[in-house]
Amino acid sequence: MTAPEPPRASGCPVAHGAGLSAGVPLTPLYGAAVADDPHGLYARLRARHGAVAPIELEPGVEAWLVLGYAELLELTRNEALFSKDSRRWRVPAEGRLAPDSRLAPMTSWRPTLLNLDGAEHQRLRAAVADTLAQIDHRQLRETTEAAANDLIDSWGPDGTADLIAQYARVLPLLVFTQLVGLPAAAGPHLIELISHFVDSSAESVRANAEFQAILVDLVQRRRAAPSADLTSWLLAHPAALTDEEAVHHLVVMLVAGNETSINWTGNTLRLLLTDRRFRATLTGGRLTVSDALEEVLWRDPPTQNFPGRWATTDTVLGGQYISAGDMLVLGLAAANADPAAQGVASAAQGSLGGNRAHLAWGAGRHVCPAQHPARIIVETAVETLLHRLPDLQLAVPPGELAWRPSPWSRALLGLPVLYSAFTPPRPPAPERPAWTPPPLPPEPAAGPSGSTPSGATSTERTPGSGKPARRSLWSSLAGWWSGR
Questions:
Q1: Contact, 239 vs 353, CB < 8 A?
Q2: How many other CB atoms sit within 10 Å of the CB of residue 435?
């Protein structure tokens, strides 16, 4: 018995090798189609091929895209049939992956939890999970809020901003550089490098090598002189990671945490600025920022596709015959939109609330370990922005917003906004010993620079208002970023 073949479409690239049936048209998972209308693309693939569709990752490189919710769960939970070890991939083994392929940074094998199965994966995952668990969540929230406030203060007085370039793309790495022990000034360059290889751009191979060189130096310095940061904690873990393993896992944490936070923040702000229904329910108190974050994870998850799994033997998935060595891409956004998945119909109507059954973080043993720090950063970023600039509005029609041409990330190129009013930052809570009863609330008074309390009505922005008396490290960096 053979799988039915759809008719060959004129001009379409066709499958190579034995893993995908000869003559089956391949749909490119790159270029304008995946950037401009990914949901339409996934719907067409589902209608034509079912839960698993043949695709092309770059000219001459075939793979399967798993679109079905149930099929993606099966894929991620069955390591015996679908391995994370990319050394099983037939394409490079057959000499069909160019040495400078843009796919290499996202698909090459490395000694990390992303590329291993079984006991070795569990050893490395424990090291990463335990390291991330040492992050003080309260301190992370405070650090993120301070950085967010200083970025907002650095914007000019004209009431315009790009929430991607000036906020979402800057803020997470300002926080993550501090977490891993890199100087804050390294953030802009790291953002550029990460963007290149996540987008599989022409500079991806060079950027990947340069990024790893920075982390090699960091690991060597922390091995010699440990500090209170993620790098030092990772090196000190009982799993006894080698320097090479530590470098590769810092790449995983920085890329997964930073890229996810950037896109999740941007996509959430876009939802709030373009969906009147959702903005009204949020401002009316019927939903929270946390609800907005969950809806984005259903509708436009920060990672829309992720490589991948490799078939260990000939098998069948979603009605397609998969050959040993075939690559299968996790269609996270497509699986969330699978009509067969319980609750997805509600997602289209925005009534999911706290439903976290989405697959935005993956599933199985390889589910993303950085989701909790990322959630704190993104939730704090969105809440701080909405508190400071309550009258934000989109500066262009929603249809003019453009997306990065990445097969992996769901990321806006820009999010221009207008605003006319602001609220000063909330004052920090006073520190006091845990056993001391809280004092009575003080009488309302003006702040040191005449600012009103945080609960006051928003006022027209004037030069210097809402600024702290002295510039913090975040302020200095934000000003440098803005060219001031």
A1: no
A2: 5
CA 269 to chain centroid? 14
User: In the prediction, which pLDDT does 356 show?
Assistant: 79
pLDDT digits (tens, 9 = 90+) for 41-56: 999 999 999 999 999 9
Q: Do 153 and 467 form a contact (C-beta atoms < 8 A)?
A: yes
DSSP string, 100-121: T-TTHHHHS--SSTTS--HHHH
Euclidean distance between CA atoms 6 and 1, whole angstroms:
16
The predicted-structure confidence for 12-38, as pLDDT tens digits, reads as follows: 444 444 456 556 789 999 888 788 899
Structure tokens given for 250 = 């810092």
Q: Which of 62, 63, 55 is nearest to 28 (CA)?
A: 55
For 331, what's the count of Cα atoms within 13 Å in the CB-facing half-sphere? 31
Find, among 173, 266, 161, the residue nearest to 214 by Cα.
173
Paired tokens of 471: 């510039």
One-letter amino acid at 462 equals: T
Beta bridge partners of 82: 311
Q: Helix (H, G, I), strand (E, B), or coil: what is residue 417?
A: strand
Question: For residue 73, with 0-12 CB atoms within 10 Å meaning exposed, 13-18 middle and 19 or more buried, which class applies?
Answer: middle
Amino acid found at 439: P
Nearest to 343 by CA among 363, 335, 270: 335
